[in-house]
Amino acid sequence: MGLPPPDPRKIKRARTLSLLLFLVVSGVLWLVWAQQRAQWAASVRSQVDLVGDQAAMRLGDYVRARLLATRGLMASERAMRDDDEFTAQALTVQREFGGFQAINRMTASGVIELVTPVAENRDALGRDVSRREHARAAFEGARETGEPHLTDALELFQGGHGFAVYFPIREGPHAGGFINGVFRVTPIVETALRGRVLSGYWIELDDDAGQRLLGPDDPSAAATQATEHRPASTTDLTVLNRHWTLRVWPRDELWRDLEATRPDEVFLFALLLVALVSWLIYVQLMRELQRDRVAEERREMARRLETTTKMEALGRLAGGVAHDFNNILTVIMGSARIVQKSAGEDPRVASGVAGILDAAARASELTRQLLSFARQSPTPVERVDLDAALRELEPMLGRLTPGEVTLVVEHSDEPLFIDAARSQLSQVFVNLVVNAVDAMPSGGTLAIRARAEDEHAVLEVQDTGVGMDAATRNHIFEPFFTTKAEGEGTGLGLATVYGIVASYHGKIDVDSEPGQGATFRIRLPLSPG
Q1: Is residue 405 within 8 Å of 465, Cβ to Cβ?
Q2: Which residue in 101, 107, 162 sits closest to 129, CA to CA?
Q3: How, if at all, do strands 112-114 and 102-106 pair?
Q4: I need a surface site. Which of 19, 63, 385, 386 has the fewest CB within 10 A?
Q5: Angle 472-473-475 from CA coordinates, rounded to 5°
Q6: Helix or strand or coil: residue 280?
Q7: Which residues have C-beta within 8 Å of that of residue 323, sequence separation ≥ 6?
Q8: Is the Cβ–Cβ distance between 107 and 113 less than 8 Å?
Q9: Secondary structure of residue 90 in the 3-state scheme
């Protein structure tokens, strides 16, 4: 005798239960996925914005430092009176700072009468900037106001794309004339933003006249950004009289890496996993119905065995589901941990792996919340005489100090050999001097001392400026901390000094009280031998 047909109500109940389980768990997964997707988008946006802000800051500081160095030439009376001395000092500035196409001197009418270096800029000699469309406005502005002015983006006399600055000469035999700094945009950007920014992001730089200073090498990059909805960061920066707009967005390779961290694949995998579990439950329920039909045919014996059969079936069901589910989870979590270990410190891969592990945990408990993922090649060092480096930079440091500030340098009686990078030592000297000058708006005395003390080279930079209170001293070396007005400082100068000193196993401290100036003291271990 054949088995009786299954009860339609029980079949419907099994289907409803399986479908309901699938819908509820899928809904929870979708909510979690939507939350994680939004967090991913916010994280990527935040990363791009941070890169944009840092790039604008670095580019602005890079250009301003070179403008300040160019202005410093006017503080040298010898350079203003002697052409050979002007050429020598201009070449020194270009060599020490880099990023220049030329430093020229112009007549009051705008004719370039002296160029440095000569070989690369011979075509500019004797040219009249007042006749150039994109240079005329800046030249006339500098002549009328007596203040330095920056040009629009323009084609240089030497060839190529760049911009120029005009510093009016107020004193000396060339009073009424101008110091002219000339820059190519591409080398400046490549130097100021080398590393992660240039390798990972497209860059556009426009001035406030609508002129394009720099654009992507690939003309389709901007269109690709728009069609793929890649996040872009737009940051304004001010350089003298001009306002530039810097726009950055991820290149293809970086964008692929960022997209690889999206939780989409994890969500799809979890959804398939839930569907599999729901189907297994449905299969088990249908088997339960089959056993019910057998029990109904056997009447009394089936009824007596019904409870045992159901318990056994439920046990097998729970065991089977748990076994299969845990096996799958074990594979997922085990594989994720292997990837996690092999990935090292790569934050993008780590974020994706964290998403996989969290999704797997939610599939088993549904009460655990996912956690969201939250950084130059080392500089080669050499054996350097700290005091000799100070002597070499002393003329440049003198140009960084205005006339109302008296610079006093006390050199060591013996060599102070340390293991350091010359470029970073220069950065330490310049940052400390600029900080001291800024602390003396009404003038004063700036003293720099170098000496040996207890197997250490000691560098002291002392000013007679406004000083600082304890609260300021406690934060003075923190990144982005500054007491200057908005737009007048980045708060990175002393933080950079602190980082460089610490990288050489040195120490830096400051003694200061309000109204009593400040003394910054650096101790670096002397190099053995």
Answers
A1: no
A2: 107
A3: antiparallel
A4: 19
A5: 70
A6: helix
A7: none
A8: yes
A9: helix
Strands (E), 360-414: 382-385, 405-410
User: How do strand 405-410 and strand 444-453 relate by DSSP bridges?
Assistant: parallel
CA-based end-to-end distance of the chain: 104
Radius of gyration for the alpha carbons in the chain, expressed in angstroms and rounded? 35
Residue-level pLDDT, tens digit, the chain, 529 residues:
445 556 677 777 777 777 777 777 777 777 777 787 788 888 888 888 998 898 899 899 999 999 999 988 888 888 888 999 999 999 999 999 888 999 999 999 999 999 999 988 999 999 999 998 889 999 999 999 999 999 988 888 888 888 999 999 988 888 889 999 999 888 888 888 887 787 888 888 888 888 888 877 666 776 776 667 788 889 999 999 989 999 988 888 888 888 787 766 776 777 777 777 777 776 776 677 677 666 666 655 545 444 334 333 433 443 444 445 555 666 677 777 777 777 666 677 777 777 787 767 655 543 332 222 222 445 678 999 999 999 999 998 988 888 899 999 999 999 999 999 888 898 899 989 999 999 999 999 999 999 999 899 999 999 999 999 988 888 888 766 777 766 566 566 787 788 889 888 999 999 999 999 999 999 999 988 6
Return d(Cα 304, Cα 302) in angstroms, integer.
5
Distance CA 222, CA 404 (A): 49
- How many CB atoms are located within 10 Å of the residue 279 CB? 12
Longest CA pairwise span in the chain (Å): 124
Residue 490: phi, psi to the nearest 5?
A: -95, -20
CB 511 within 8 A of CB 425: no
Angle formed by the axes of helices 422-438 and 493-503, nearest 10°: 140
Q: Please name every residue paired with 246 in a beta bridge, in sequence order, or none if there are none.
A: 205, 235
Encode 482-521: b = buried (16+ Cβ within 10 Å), e = exposed. beeeeeebbbbbbbbbbebbeebebebeeebeeeebbbbe
